[in-house]
Amino acid sequence: MTQEKTYNRREVGALAMGAALATGGLGLATSSAQAQSNWPSKAIRFVVPFAPGGTSEIVARSVAAELTKQLGVSVYVEITGGVGNGESAKVEIQDNGHALIYTGTSPHGQGHATSWAMLANEQTGIPIENIELVWGDTDLVPIGTGTMGSRSLQQGGNAVFAVAAELVNKAKSVAARLLEASEEDIVLDKDSGSFHVAGTPAVAKTWADLALAEKQSGGLVHSDVINVSGATFPFGAHVAVVEVDVETGKVTHIAHTACDDAGKVLNPMLLEGQIHGGVAQGAAQALLEEVSYDPDGNPITSNLADYAFISAAELPSVTVVHMETPTPVNLIGAKGIGESGTIGATPAVQSAVVDAVSQFGVKHIDMPTTAEKVWAAIQSAR
Amino acid sequence: MKVTITVNGTTHESDVEPRTLLVQYVRESLGLTGTNIGCDTSSCGACSLHLNGESVKSCTVLAVQADGGSVTTIEGLAKDGVMHPMQQAFMENHGLQCGYCTPGMVMAAIGLLNENPSPTEEQVRIGLEGNLCRCTGYHNIVKSVLACANNK
Amino acid sequence: MIPAPFDYKRASSAAEAISLVSEYGEDAKFLAGGHSLLPLMKLRLAQPAVLIDIARIEDLSYIRDAGDHISIGAMTRHMDVEKSPILAEHAPLLSFAASHVGDPQVRHRGTIGGSIAHADSASDLPATTLALGATYVVQGPNGTREIAAADFYVGFLESALAPDEMLTEIRVPKMNGATWGFQKFNRRAQDWAIVGVAAWKRGTESGVGLVNMGSVPILATSVAKAIAGGASVSDAAKLAGAEAEPQSDLNASAEYRVHLAEVLVRRALESTSK
To answer: CB 3.0-4.6 Å disulfide test: which of A84, B75, B91, C243 passes with A145?
Structure first.
């Protein structure tokens, strides 16, 4: 059952804008009174595919209400999980009952060792600290697409989740054999990480027991490539607050709030880390960073002294608002968060700058909105 | 040229070309590859370590300048398997992702707290102006440093 | 990334340093903190055949109250200039400016003498000491001489130091309660100034130095003259560009630099920086 909300474009204003303060006055931009573009020309429709009265519907109503009050929101939808349509995973139980996960993703700071362990733990009951991750070595992981395009959790993590579930089924059949019972009567007690016949928990086999039992016949392991049914569509809204020193054009990014919906959240700390990094990179693109060339085509920003790689001193801390609309496209309801920060932040910050100086008649400033560009825009608009 | 440098408590005597950078010395002569090289222009801070108790960019110091001195690298922080409080704070607060900037960032952060034990958030951000990071957006790095400061 | 090969000598006294540099002539450069020189050598923009390390010469690093001025040894690091209680009291414009050089790691190694001798118009301390009317003490084979900061910067990266001379001390007049301001305008906190201003004012007396507004650090004498003549700070600041020859580069056009100088001079003179 779906609910639809329709908003009058006049109140909402242009799609991507940031709230801004100009020095010398509170210049919160208002709607069509300003010289803003007339796009979008249609109402913005929020589709909330959940029953009325549920959390998602309440959130959608509140966000929509705020949107009608004031602009200053960069709203986006992106496509993730479009690279590859699945991923490989192997879960193997070792003699001591620990688990080894082999993944076709290639983490470089995204924390897959933690996340995939959480997923495997959810299926198997094996403690997270007893689960290790193997990746990147094609001798050990012959099939894998890697980590990019915000694909890893929704495809790679999903594969781990599915493979671990199948491993539990295999384990049950081994347990059934050892406990001389039928497979349907075997129960996995995730708290203790052991299998027993329903009704007789005292007689149990641990993961280690089962691994040992299977040692001669190839071990207790399951491996597969798990496909997903399609790409996913994370979305969100960012608000950037900047302060423009009108005399010099210098921009300071003073606050940033990001609301990103990338489906079901597995690990909030890792999720937020991805958002923080993306926001910094998006803000940097809007404010500072640019690859420049001389008239002969020689790059002149070819080191980190000339290229204005943003530092902590130029950035605010980020307020993150969580929102979860699970996707039906995989087992874990997750979309991809890896790029949300960059996508939401860049237009929010750039638009905040323009918004701040729109009071002088400025309509647009190309990124990066360096001080000289902002100052020049103010001079020519006045 | 012969140099004698104490690194992480061990004194080494080595023969180096004068143009050997301190970062090359620790990485290549001593095999301590925790300290990273991230740029050509003394901008990124990934090479930061402590020389005579102060944070420096080891890519901009010659090994011969460190002769007779004492160096601490990232490998020298943990004692008997127990992490330095700054390392602990980075771990608990997700202050690193890919980890490339991290050794330099941790060394710079320790130097920062040595000189200003109770910094404000702004002082932390400015204090880390010489250390660049692409992954974290600095948010959790700042959080880690403030957490470490508050735990002392 | 790696400097070209060079010979490395250590001087244990100023006299030895001078005799070494006399021996090797133009092939030799002094090595103090190395944070102006080594970055150039790593890009091979400088390839001296000999480096004479002066860091171990005793008593070249100090900050002393000498009555009407503060004497600062050439090897004094930026961090020590920044944190000096003597300078905080008597020349706070200088200690504040030093706190803005590079980043903390750079300030642990770079020296005031190295920065001044390197004579880069985009560096903070040459313009600041120029604004303060400093005198530089220089030692050569024939003895010591003093050079006024206003006579020291003769061209792009070129100072009045003879090839066989070494800067040993910087003498900064006490500010005696002058108000002051230091405005460093850059893209990122660790960057060089796009334009910088070091200024002080006491009644109708003032001194204004400009960073990165020409091939040498600029003394904005027209501004000081206007203030001496009773002009308001904001009127005087409009003359900020009078002595300057700013360049257009990756970070700013010359025209914008002049505009910035006018704004920043006014701000530097209007209120004491924090």
So the answer is: A84
CB of A379 closer than 8 Å to CB of A44: no
Give the structural domain span for A282: 5-78+240-381
pLDDT of residue A83: 81
> Taking Cα atoms as reference points, which of C209, C263, C203 lies closest to residue C230?
C203
Contact B57 C106 (CB under 8 A): yes
pLDDT band of A12, cuts 50, 70, 90: very low
- Who's near A298: CB < 8 A, 6+ residues apart? none
Residue A290 lies in a domain: yes
Residues A314, A280, single domain; the answer is yes
Same domain, A267 and A351: yes
Cα-Cα-Cα-Cα dihedral sign, residues C68, C74, C78, C83 = negative
How many domains are contained in chain A?
2
User: CA A220 to CA A124: how far, in whole Å?
Assistant: 13
Question: Which other chains touch chain C, taking contact as 3+ CB pairs less than 8 Å apart?
Answer: A, B
User: Which chain C residues are closer than 8 Å to B60 by Cβ?
Assistant: 34-35, 38-39, 42, 106, 109
> What does the alpha-carbon distance between residue A143 and residue A134 come to, in Å, rounded to a whole number?
13
Q: Which domains does chain B have, with CATH numbers?
A: 2-76 (3.10.20.30), 85-150 (1.10.150.120)
In chain B, helix, strand, coil percent, each to 5?
Answer: 40, 20, 45
For C252, the 3-state DSSP assignment is strand
Candidates C51, C57, C79, C103: best to mutate against B (most CBs of B within 10 A) is C103
Nearest to A375 among C190, C191, C256 (CB): C256
Whether A215 and A317 map to the same domain: the answer is no
User: Is A233:A334 a contact under the CB 8 Å cutoff?
Assistant: no
Subunit contact C103:B130, Cβ cutoff 8 A: yes
Place of tokens 């009644």: C203
Q: Residue A259's domain is classified under what CATH number?
A: 3.30.365.10
Residue A127: is the preceding peptide bond cis (ω within 30°)? no
Domain-located, residue A232: no
Asked if A291 and A299 count as a contact pair (C-beta separation under 8 A), the reply is yes
- Interface predicted TM-score of the whole assembly (ipTM), two decimals: 0.97
Kindly determine whether residue C256 and residue A314, on different chains, have CB atoms separated by under 8 Å.
no
Select from B43, B97, B125 the Cβ nearest to the Cβ of A313.
B125
CB A349 within 8 A of CB A282: yes
Q: Encode pLDDT of A116-130 as tens digits.
A: 999 999 999 999 999
Same domain, A174 and A222: yes
Closest chain B residue to C55, measured at CA: B65
> pLDDT, tens digit, for every residue of B9-19?
999 999 999 99
Residues present in chain C in total: 274
Sheet with C50-53, strands from edge to edge, namely C7-10, C50-53, C28-31
* Residue A345 covered by a domain: yes
- For residue A106, give both structure tokens: 């290639």
Alpha-carbon gap, residue B60 to A162, rounded angstroms: 51
Distance CA A321, CA A73 (A): 14
